[in-house]
Amino acid sequence: MGDTFMGYRRKDGSVGIRNLIAIIPSVFCSSKVVERIACQVPGTVYFRHPVGCSQVGEDLEITAKTLIQIGRHPNFAGVVVVGLGCERFSPYELVEGISSTGKMLQTVVIQEAGDSLKAIEEGVRYAREMQQIASRQQREEVDVSELTIALNCGGADATSGMVANPALGIASDKLVAQGGSSILSELTELLGTEHILARRAVNDQVAREIKEAIYRMEERLKNQTANSSNPNRKHLISKGNYDGGLSSVVEKSLGSMKKGGNAPVSGVIRYGEPLKGKGLFLLDSPGHDGEVATGQVAAGAQMILFPTGRGTPTGFPGVPVVKITGNPKTYNKMNENIDINAGTVITGEKTLEEVGEEIYQEILDVASGKMVKSEILGHDELFCITRVP
Amino acid sequence: MSQVHLIMNQKEKLILVIDPKDNVGVALTDIREGDTCIIRRGDIVEQMTALDNIPFGHKIALTNVEKDEPVYKYGEEIGKMKEGIKRGGWIHSHNMYCERGMG
Asked: Which segments does the entry list as coiled coil (chain B) (predicted)?
């Protein structure tokens, strides 16, 4: 056994690092009922989303797959699905998608329950029953290979690519080397690195998929900038990037890519789909923080590692988001939002390797139950399912 | 980047080298021409004189780099030199080019 952490073993063999009850709406119309249920039962989290109605084709498929994957997530011991009753992606399909995990599962449909109040009452009863059972489960020692972390950068500044991302890459490499998994994404921030990632691919097929995914994203960006009425929004690298010392889009992307360290790339996953195997994976997603984090959690990440130079407070329902800053000034200013000060490299107190080790130890601590600052403050705004344009 | 500029008024002019293969380092504080810089590669520390003013977050050449030779940061090529540069000089868009993503 390598390094270990204390997690919650689930019936399907997966391991959670939190033991919560998730209240999930199949459609946006049931979001308020979901919120009211969660507010009345400690140990629950809820997911508000603006989609699930009048969507078709791939757009609806991504919503459906993502909601199912959120329900299957190992951080949740039980799930209460709340539907309205007339939506195209039915709450019963959502329940069906979650059921093979063997976790506690109940359905509330507002139009069948009678009205909002009756639906809330029914949902609260289910949630409290689940919570009483879940509260008796104990953590057990599991190998670190059961852990999947997600890498997502937001509110970047010059220090992100210099220290926070490379230090996180060292921690990610250490996890992957011990059989764990790590998810890199934000394809909009990886343009120009596809040949490097492809070189690290475990086989030719994966190398091809990496290049195709990044070229597809570049095409999508080019189509959007070609039609932009504002000439200042046509560039893939901003004036602030140049001022901060970045001389090319490749240099910018490398700074972003460094979150994924130097490990081999095991595969490319599509949005709303789970990881296939262990190792470092690339998730096909644009760069919006919420869309990225949601796709990563849907893929099975139990925790998100989030470098931020300028500082952001955001979190995800039921999934710890560990904030790391490379900017010592941001750390001091936003102390209640930032977990790790990688700015100690800038001030000369520590090396990148030392901060990488510090991040790795934090990953183990958080996996074993240590609450992060975004959880304590109740931040949950990162849940946001991507749309197909 | 004004926020970042204010981070450090430290006397030590630190240069960070991200990957052993790199021929550039990153300035961890504003550097003036003639300053003696301290280069950190992990635990190894050496000294170098800056030939230009180099702002926080910008690149300084660790070796002489000839025209059209690659610039390496993160152990990877980020572009090539438009003109030769001496060890200690400032590398940025005025003397480096990259064919990708420049419109």
From this structure: none
Biggest alpha carbon–alpha carbon distance for chain A: 64
Count the helices and strands in chain A (H runs, E runs): 15, 14
| A243, A255, A351: residue with CB nearest B1 | A243
Q: pLDDT tens for residues A11-21?
A: 999 999 999 99
| Dihedral class, residue B42 (left if φ above 0, else alpha if ψ from -120 to 50, else beta) | left
Amino acid A241: pLDDT = 83
**A 226-245 residues with CB < 8 A to B:** 234-237, 240, 242-245
Helix axes A57-72, A289-298, angle to 10 degrees: 60
Predicted pLDDT of residue B7: 45
Contacts of A329 in chain B (CB under 8 A): 3-4, 6-7
Distance CA B63, CA B21 (A): 12
Q: What is the pLDDT of residue B2?
A: 40
Q: Do the chains contact at A348 and B14, CB–CB below 8 Å?
A: yes
Closest Cα partner for A76 from A318, A275, A295, A298? A318
**Residue ranges in chain B whose pLDDT is less than 70:** 1-11, 101-103
Whole-number Å distance between alpha carbons of B87 and A326: 27
* A40 close to B (CB below 8 A): no
What gap in Å lies between CA A128 and CA A121, rounded to an integer? 11
- Whole-prediction pTM value? 0.93
Collapsing DSSP to helix, strand or coil, A109 comes out as strand
What DSSP assignment string belongs to A149-160? EEE---S--HHI
Q: How many CB pairs under 8 A join A and B?
A: 118
In Å, what is the CA distance from B78 to each residue of B22, B23, B99?
Answer: 10, 11, 10
Spatial CB neighbours of A236, under 8 Å, sequence gap ≥ 6: A191, A221, A225, A249, B101
